[in-house]
Design brief:
five-stranded mixed sheet; binds zinc ion; Nucleotidyltransferase, domain 5; 318 residues; alpha/beta
Amino acid sequence: MSALFAGVDLGGTSIAAALAERDGRIVAEAETPTHSHEGPDAVIRKIEQLLVALSAKTGATIQAIGMGVPGLVDVPTGVTKFLPNLPTQWRDVPVATTLQQALGCPVSLMNDVRMATLGELVFGHGRTAPAPLTMGFFSIGTGIGGGVVVEGRLRLGPLGAAGELGHQTILPQGPRCGCGNRGCLEALSSGPAIAAEGIRLMRMGLAPKLFELVGGNVANVTPREMLASGDESTREAITQAAEYLGIAIANVVTILHPELIVLGGGVAELGNALLVPIRDVVRQRVGMFPTDEVRVEKSQLGDRAGILGAIALAAKAG
Ligand SMILES: [Zn+2]
């Protein structure tokens, strides 16, 4: 019986799991609804069942498990501290110990975006970049998460919370952010922030093609629809969001002088509509050294970055 590594990505709506070889080659994967209202014990049992089923399907034993969670976790013990989007917020839930006892192998927990950063480092752009790599990772979706790698090592900090790149202040008097601050990058350039501007433009009659594309239904307005519409106004809104991202990235570049900045998450799928203005802003705003060698790229792993990071962490522990 062969041995594989397991990666788990715990989300508010679904749990994804995969078994893979040490080199990141995925052998089997599965997904199930989280049903987070049933509470931590039921969700942990569901993860256990998902992994047992994958193990049975592949005929492989699980050598070690890595698991990304949406919030704060005590990394050395694998105890969740604060998962803001899950009921009860999972305060002090000993997830790693419980799963370890049930499945008989080491379990390592980490914040999901730091996990995606690790995935990109080990199996994405980091694989071919010169070592030791310094890199900033932005995950742009419903929120903006981040992660920082300094000379080949993921920087976690004492609470595993280092690298929250989406909560840099970009506009001092800007819109409120979920973290309590104002004018964070997340409040300006996340998917909902961009869509909100699209909806405003549509309601004011300034985005007629978008109106036609979504049938006037505001619930269908997303950054992708805004780009596809071809309205000049929505294109400007995307460029504005990209310029705010560019400022945040220029700050990270000034602080770290990294070789690489990677953009992941659903909004990064806008591709050059984001990347071109971002690269311009970085060139304009970093004046202390040349930035020609600093690459700003879309993630190579897309929505699999998190699960592959979890596999990389499991492979380290196993
Ligand atoms: Zn914030």
